[in-house]
Sequence to fold (326 residues):
Amino acid sequence: MSQAGRALAHAFDTGALAHRRAFLLRAEPVALRDVDAEQSLRPEFLRLQRARWNVVARLGNDGGGYEQGLVLLTKHKEENFANIARAWKLLAPGGVLACAGANDDGAASLEKNVAKAFGGVTQLSKFHSRVFWFTKTDREPPDYWRRLTSLQAVGDGTWLSQPGLFSWDRIDDGSALLVQHLPSDLTGTVADFGCGWGFLTRHLLAQAHGIVHIDCIDAEHRALEAAEANITDPRATFHWLDLTTEPAPASYDAIVCNPPFHSGRAATPSLGQQMIEAATRALKPGGQLFMVANRGLPYEPTLKANFTSFETLADNNKFRITRAVR
Fold:
């Protein structure tokens, strides 16, 4: 359980908050009861499911008449604004909305924003986190917060994304470099591992006409919501999977990947290493992996252990583009 989750549980344990029929956004297994949980990140969703929580990837936005709303805050300010606006809509009039976040993630600043928007909050601090709550009245969230609850135009305006996703409001430099080095003669069945909001996939479908089918795979359901809006080519299908623990839906002639950066503990494989290993399992013999990563990340031993050969296609002192053959 996160520090913020512990602080939220403490608020209930001490009686500062009373148990009511509630929902929990960005849910994790805190010691609560009668809670409808929303968790769009696949590994956390599966963990809640194994713990027999009532959990979905996305709660409906048409209002649920809940007496209580609970929001675990993230480090992304705009995502928090959007979640608070969504939570406000799910609450019945007179319902209580409680938010919990780590101090290091900017919870204090967000508390001030919420107090200004809704006319004050009640607050407690614990475990290097804070919990703050207020009662729903006729005051509405700011227009900007409500706009963030739907997909937003980004980049050149032909793309849609939403707060909280990796590089949600711009094309990241690594992906922009990778598309410059993807061959236009790829054929057969392809996958985009960690597809995000679909930038690499849409480029491939526009340039490589020999592609028969492409699977867009991501562990973040919200990313797939954006990718489906951005990609209308019928050759693409979308899959909500944790590739580090769940098998890919097919075997592939090629895979493209901008793996998530996560260092973890020294003895634990990073997410990037696990994505490389997942690509090895999913590629056909002779299949190719095209990957971009921060050049300082130690992926070479993993590539050596899992691929017949690999080469550097580009290196701009920040990112390295690698082609590996199974």
User: Anything to note?
Assistant: Residues 77-90 form the longest helix (14 residues).
